[in-house]
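Memo to structure team: turn this sequence into structure tokens by end of day. - J.P.
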Amino acid sequence: MEQITWIAVDWGTSNLRAWAMGPRGPLAEATSDDGMGKLSPDQFEPALLHLIAPWLTTAKMPVIACGMVGARQGWREAAYRAVPCTPVAADAVLNVMTNDARMTVKIAPGLSQSRPADVMRGEETQIAGALALNPGFDGVLCLPGTHSKWVQVSAGEVVSFQTFMTGELFALLSTQSVLRHGMADGWDESAFDEGLSDALSRPDRIASKLFALRAEGLLHGLSPAQARARLSGLLIGIELAGAKPYWLGQNVKLICNATLAASYTRALATQGVTAQSLDATACTLAGLSALQHEIGQIP
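Reply from structure team:
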């Protein structure tokens, strides 16, 4: 077996993922539900050790982490870097003191934008990975998810970005609002398309269109699967309406899982935009690998 030379970590709000990395890529993977949201600062090191202990030896193992581990509520706060800038930079990583002498931990900081105010953590590493996998790319990256990001990239730098709470709104509305009574698993593409069209043509009526999902379920038999798909279409539609300056006439790449890629590709296609998809995990690993390589070049 190849020797483990360093450990890559993606630490989100809900989950912790780690990869044992060798010279040619990942050798092993481990995950847990010890996300930032359930840990106090003194619990981060034990949570990490619980996951990666089998990969440690007596020598110091470099650990490079990205994501919410560097948030104000995380292990240690890694100060944002202001755009325009490269997505990651070796001289900006935060060194974290550890009790266990078998590892050294560095955290990649997120990015900030002053006007309009915006921030990201974790996505910057995926952006770095996308650029590493697509050298010379200039255009727009869309990172759908809980907080979707639209990012303008030029000459290897993040120029500007905009965040939309699309995924979080979908989760809240479908599970905690009055709409939950008419929602269930399932999908209906025509209902998605209808919601998308409604939101793009009249984004000012979104609040009314949302309640109509409940009313149509009660009065006209709108099925739970149709309601769920239309809700997704409505929310992605108002996101696209707001992000139009980013995608209109642009070269767009999506960084996300297959399910979200299908919805966003379908939505963008209705507007004449052909989007290409990149795997989110592959971009994360490529970004952390690029950062690790850059750190290794520092004397």
